[in-house]
Amino acid sequence: MTERSFRVIENEWIRLADGTRLAARIWMPDGAEVETVPAVLEFLPYRKRNGTAPRDESTYPAFAAAGIAGVRVDIRGSGESEGVIDGEYTPRELSDTVEVIEWIASRPWSNGNVGMMGISWGGFNCLQVAALKPPALKAVISIASTVDRYNDDIHYKNGTHLSAQLSWAATMLAYQSRPPDPEIVGDAWKEMWLERLEHEPFFMADWLSHQRRDAFWEQGSICEDFDAFPVPALVIAGWADGYRNTPLKAVEGMPDKAKALVGPWVHKYPHFAYPKPRADFLGEAIAWWGRWLRNDDNGAESLPQMRAFILDGPRPALWRESDPGYWIAKDQWTPPQERNLRLDEAGRLSESPSTPFAGTMRLRSPLDTGVAAGEWFTSKPDAELAGDQRIDDAGSLVFDSAPLEEECVLLGQPRLSVRLTSDAPQGNLCARIVDLHPDGTATRICFGVLNLAHRHSNADPQPMAPGEPTEIEMTLDACGYRIAPGHRMRLALSSAYWPTILPPPCDAGLDIELASLRLALPLLGDHRRIQVAQPAVADPLPRYETLVDGSGGRRVERDLVSGVTAYKVFEDTGLNRHPGNGLASRDTREETWSILANDPLSMTGEARWTCHAQRAGWEASTHCISTLACTETEWVISATVEAFHNGKSVFTRTRSERIARDLM
């Protein structure tokens, strides 16, 4: 196909029915008014001017050159769009998106067919909007997203409270506190900014008010009615990211609509993600849009239902540039056959023990067990990825196999069942599957967590009956992994996984009935080896002018006198100036979690953000502090925002709230 020339419309206003104007940046193929084109929408709260500009500028020019318009729109109350955001994936957000799709389809340059895509927020809302069935929306590409907002996002996981919930609430507080660019909105910028600062919500309060899987989380969870999902969906994720389950759930729930692609990646677009190998996302996407938005005869509808990268024993490292492994395809996804393991008479994981291991073992992990887990939400292949698991194995019950005589290749979600007794009404259980290399290095394959009060239902949890044996079943996160001959497999159980999940109000001890333990491993089964095309450009992100270098770090500190363990994160983007619009910006984040290893009520979390933007004669910045603590019966949260214009404070506010704990 001959590449088309195109132009960039730096800003175009889309007026909604209520009068609110949304700001759009458009990559428009030349001649579209004569030869109409399809369009792809990405609808985000992350600022098209200086937030997502690098990745937008690595993606939409390629679409436009292929004759597909790219429309990048700031959500209400973000970037240069008017109004105030009202939450995450709210009915109003989705309704606004439907209006934007209608606006695109009605343009004289449009052929009437619209696609929608995105990673994370944009991956979520493209699925959610498609479920509303706007007529012009014909296909979606969803990257690092979820079909179940309660169990597969940054809030809760099988009833456990993810610390990422505070991290993300703090991030959104900081992001939404940033002003619009005066170059686009003119003198109205300050009035718009002050309106946002006054009325932006602190998302954490909403999320903590819904600790069960209720209607709040059902809204926007397309798994509630997979059968009604109307359009083809290419669903992409990375094994190194927290959103790794969605491709499998999509092809299981929507086998006639969904195609899955899972690589080794962190939370990034596949054409510039780590660890490598990368994938030619631009080529994949252009073919997908061509097939479904203009009826190109390119075979995209015949893609295998599942394509996945099988990790082949990667080792924890300071920086994982690339991971060993290979690509496979399964033309039709079917529930995997399982390899069932139990404990033999020596306490080893075994496929067919002649005599199961008898007795019980006590599990009561130090509450700081979990510091080698890495981040739930990963953006770099460094300490954000899970480290050597021997650190956390020290606070866990571990059960190993003998060295494997043959390879064991997994693809799917492992399942664990066990009978246990708790000495408290609340408690958490974490299970990790670990690859033990011959030299002892321990690589986490996957993990799962469960709030024991949610063992039967996330909508109607029930406390444990202390002293009463209870059957527990839990599903771990998806994995694609080869355990090589000579390696051993480890199952590690812990009652804490901090700071990934936060502790319940009581430090429960669990008695594990060893003969009851069963681990079902999903086997790869029938497949074929394939090649997945690499990006044509090895480093597609544009380079901006760096005025101040960025930096980052993570560390764990243990005070041996006080007994406090602190987990600390620091990230600084540096000060970078966009060469086209001249806007320079910098964001810094400091996050600290602390806990006493024997006191669950000592847990605290604090996230500090500074966001700064400037151009000649103008600068604006915000300082945001978000905190989380607890009592036996309450979550205690606060949010402080202070805003500065040209160094002078123009707004400050602190909000505090105490929210009852609900079996959590």
- Given as residue ranges, the uncertain stretches (5+ residues, pLDDT < 50) are none
Measured by DSSP, the beta-strand proportion falls in 35-45%
CATH topology of the domain at 6-159 and 211-330: Rossmann fold
Which of globular, elongated, flat, extended, rod-shaped describes the shape? globular
The first-to-last residue Cα distance is 56 Å
The CATH homologous superfamily of the domain at 6-159 and 211-330 is termed Alpha/Beta hydrolase fold, catalytic domain
Question: Which structural class fits the helix and strand makeup?
Answer: alpha+beta
With helices defined by DSSP (H or I, 4 residues minimum), what is the helix count? 11
* Total beta strand runs: 34
Please tell me the CATH architecture of the domain at 6-159 and 211-330 by its name: 3-Layer(aba) Sandwich
Mean pLDDT: 97
How much is the radius of gyration in Å? 25 Å
The CATH class of the domain at 6-159 and 211-330: Alpha Beta
Helix content: 10-25%
Main sheet summary: 13 strands, mixed
Give me some keywords for this one:
single chain; 664 residues; alpha+beta; Rossmann fold; Jelly Rolls; 13-stranded mixed beta sheet; 9-stranded antiparallel beta sheet
What does this structure look like?
This protein is α+β, with helices and mostly antiparallel strands and 664 residues long. Among the domains are: 6-159 and 211-330, Alpha/Beta hydrolase fold, catalytic domain (Rossmann fold, 3-Layer(aba) Sandwich); 338-524, Sandwich (Jelly Rolls), CATH 2.60.120.260. The protein contains eleven helices and 34 strands. Strands 1, 2, 3, 4, 5, 6, 9, 10, 11, 12, 17, 22 and 25 form a 13-stranded mixed sheet that branches. Strands 26, 27, 28, 29, 30, 31, 32, 33 and 34 form a nine-stranded antiparallel sheet that branches. Strand 7 and strand 8 (160-161) form a beta hairpin. The longest helix has 15 residues, at 91-105. The model has no long low-confidence stretch (mean pLDDT 97).
